[in-house]
Amino acid sequence: MFPDPGFQAQQQFDQSRRFREMNDQMDVQRRRRARRGSGSGLGGLLKLVLLVGVVVLLAQNPELRAEAWTFVQELWADVQTG
User: Fold this and answer.
1) What is the CB neighbour count within 10 angstroms for residue 75?
2) CB under 8 Å to 65, separation ≥6 — which residues?
3) Closest to 8 measured CA to CA, from 18, 21, 16
4) I need a surface site. Which of 46, 58, 59, 82 has the fewest CB within 10 A?
5) How do residues 4-27 score in pLDDT, each as one tens digit?
């Protein structure tokens, strides 16, 4: 009839263990996101250099710029119709 104190203690222990594990996993994910960041480190620098290179290339070559603009317009038309 009366609840077993040992059983209740085991349930509380299991619950607190699961809670600690969940917090540990959240901490790991938080640290991983903070370390990675958005656009930080070598990957971010590489993206920036690539973007600047493409912009300079398009600025110097009007034919390539026209072809790229036509491609983007056709792609946008396809996206809107499809």
Assistant:
1) 10
2) 58, 59
3) 16
4) 82
5) 878 888 888 888 898 899 888 888
